[in-house]
Amino acid sequence: IEGEMIKLDIKQYYISFRWEIIVEQMNFPTIIVDKALKSPFKNFIHKRTFSEISNVRTRMNDTVVIELPFGYFGKFLVPFIKSDLNKLFAYRHQKTVAFFEPIKTS
Questions:
Q1: Which of 14, 41, 50, 62 has the least C-beta neighbours within 10 A?
Q2: Helices H, strands E: what count in the chain?
Q3: Burial level of 34, CB count in 10 A (0-12/13-18/19+)?
């Protein structure tokens, strides 16, 4: 729901982070955009778009816009952040496929 606030406590590398996220845009069934109001990042926006492939398949594309903290020195974190985000989205893809994939019977 647009305007809804989501609070997450995320622990990574033995450090806990409190995220506060607002759903900025939700146009069912094509787009969801949320923005972190509080996170380890200076700016974090996550946009998901959905497009129909067939009657039973949908493609979801993610766009993440991140502004790092620490000015120039924050650029040294880019490889670690990319790696973590790739792992996160691979995990989500695996769980999404498992959830929505039809049960196959013999």
A1: 14
A2: 1, 5
A3: buried
